[in-house]
């Protein structure tokens, strides 16, 4: 059986590895328009901010590794279109050479593309997006210019906040803009986002919330950002507004979700039984919502690639759904979440309650210590846990995995009240903040 995979980032890599390592009868063809594969884009801000020495280790595999396993790989190759009836993929290399690939099964792993607002001046030099490795290279090159002093970041989601930190670490004057009243509004409730905003301001980032960019000005290079509230001198603009699913190849043939992502079942199969869609171009099943959703995360992409590959290889496997677990660390302040915030639950029509607690991570006599705050969100009627958020200068990240499993298994808030949680002063308190938050629930 011949499987063609279009896209070689997290989802495509996971699918290819699973097919090549598990199913020896598979002929695997991998196609990508980029010059590289397997780039960990989440490390771009670490590299640009010089928190790591170089970008080399942000690539966790290479073309040669797959060639050794028997895959055929074509990089710097654009898929111009797919004939789904004849099951043929039409390709064009950067040098103009064209070729075709037939398939038995096709995996679309085309990811997402940055949202690009159609504003006056959008084509000026110095107006950038962050997605690909080359985008990171270009932003880093401009950041290295001593004449670049004022940086505007548009969008205060994960990527925007991270690149704002990176620019500040490079000695720039940074302004952060967003239409929402806080940063990270899609992932956290205000109790948490206001803590992050205070952290950003403490480190010298100027916040401009509930403010919309309307134009870029300049002759050849951008020199002014115009918003609905004023004009600001800029030498570099980084757009991080968000992403939309890249559905160009299949949008006329395959069923789509409300936002344009490919509609797939729990096997990652599209409306065409010979076509699978994985990663950021496809939907997932949200265990918190108990419904289909669009949650673009690298970990979701990897899992979807594994599921699709096993089904293609002949092992029936269903996705168990996702919680959308995520985290961020900015100037040493850590926030993690999974499932739904109160705000997002209510936006999706769920009636929820929540319980909050704040305490030190360890007993007060421990020298190394910091405050931790936690919110557990649960459905009011069923009392099942649907979300959790934690924040601290301590590394509290591992705790979120327990809540992810709790959401998946429909654990109630009451089940958590007397959960067996160990105590040792090096790690936590005898009255653990998870226990105390659960006990405080109505």
From TrEMBL:
UniProt domain FAD/NAD(P)-binding: residue ranges: 2-305
Essential cofactor(s): FAD
Enumerate the Pfam families for this protein.
Answer: Pyr_redox_2 (PF07992), Pyr_redox_dim (PF02852)
- Give the catalytic activity: 2 NADH + O2 + 2 H(+) = 2 NAD(+) + 2 H2O
Cross-referenced PANTHER family: NAD(P)H SULFUR OXIDOREDUCTASE (COA-DEPENDENT) (PTHR43429:SF1), PYRIDINE NUCLEOTIDE-DISULFIDE OXIDOREDUCTASE DOMAIN-CONTAINING (PTHR43429)
The Pyridine nucleotide-disulphide oxidoreductase dimerisation domain extends over: 332-428
Tell me its EC number(s), please: 1.6.3.4
Which top class of enzyme applies to this chain? Answer: oxidoreductase
Domain of life, per UniProt, equals Bacteria
* UniProt lineage: Bacteria, Bacillati, Bacillota, Bacilli, Lactobacillales
Similarity remark: Belongs to the class-III pyridine nucleotide-disulfide oxidoreductase family.
Listed NCBIfam families: NOXase_Strep
What this protein is called in its record is NADH oxidase
Under the GO molecular function aspect, what terms does this record hold?
A: oxidoreductase activity
The record's keywords, sorted A to Z, are: FAD, Flavoprotein, NAD, Oxidation, Oxidoreductase, Redox-active center
């Amino acid at each position: 059986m011949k499987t063609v995979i279009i896209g070689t980032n997290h989802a495509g890599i996971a699918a290819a590895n699973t097919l090549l390592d598990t199913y020896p009868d598979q002929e695997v063809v991998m196609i990508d328009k980029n010059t590289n594969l397997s780039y960990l884009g989440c490390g771009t801000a670490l590299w640009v901010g010089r928190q790591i020495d170089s970008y080399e280790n942000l690539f966790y595999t290479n073309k040669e590794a797959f060639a050794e396993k028997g895959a055929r790989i074509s990089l710097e190759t654009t898929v111009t279109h797919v004939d789904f009836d004849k099951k043929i993929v039409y390709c064009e290399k950067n040098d103009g050479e064209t070729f075709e690939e037939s398939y038995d099964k096709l995996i679309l792993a085309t990811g997402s593309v940055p949202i690009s607002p159609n504003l006056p001046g959008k084509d000026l030099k110095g107006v950038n997006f962050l997605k690909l490795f080359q985008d990171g290279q270009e932003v880093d090159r401009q950041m290295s210019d001593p004449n670049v002093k004022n940086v505007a970041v548009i969008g205060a989601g994960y990527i925007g906040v991270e690149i704002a930190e990176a620019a500040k670490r490079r000695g720039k004057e940074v302004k952060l803009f967003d239409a929402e009243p806080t940063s990270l509004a899609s992932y956290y409730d205000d109790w948490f986002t206001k803590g992050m905003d205070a952290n950003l301001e403490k480190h010298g980032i100027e916040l401009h919330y509930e403010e919309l960019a309307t134009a870029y000005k300049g002759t050849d290079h951008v020199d002014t950002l115009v918003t609905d509230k004023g004009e600001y001198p800029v030498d570099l603009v980084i757009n991080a507004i968000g992403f939309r699913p890249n559905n160009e190849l299949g949008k006329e043939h395959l069923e789509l979700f409300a936002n344009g992502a490919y509609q797939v079942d729990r096997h990652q199969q599209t409306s065409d039984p010979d076509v699978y869609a994985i990663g950021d171009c496809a939907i997932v099943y949200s265990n918190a919502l108990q419904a289909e959703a669009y949650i673009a995360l690298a970990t979701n992409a990897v899992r979807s690639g594994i599921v699709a590959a096993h089904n293609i290889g002949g092992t029936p496997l269903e996705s168990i759904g996702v919680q959308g677990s995520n985290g961020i660390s900015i100037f040493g302040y850590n926030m993690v979440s999974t499932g739904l915030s109160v705000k997002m639950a209510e936006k999706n029509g769920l009636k929820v309650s929540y319980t909050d607690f704040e305490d030190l991570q360890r007993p007060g006599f421990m020298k190394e210590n910091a405050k931790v705050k936690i919110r557990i969100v649960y459905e009011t009627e069923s009392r099942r846990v649907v979300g959790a958020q934690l924040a601290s200068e301590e590394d509290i990240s591992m705790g979120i995995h327990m809540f992810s499993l709790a959401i998946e298994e429909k654990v109630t808030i009451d089940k958590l009240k007397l959960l067996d949680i160990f105590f040792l002063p090096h790690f936590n308190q005898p009255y653990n903040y998870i226990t105390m938050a659960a006990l405080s629930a109505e």
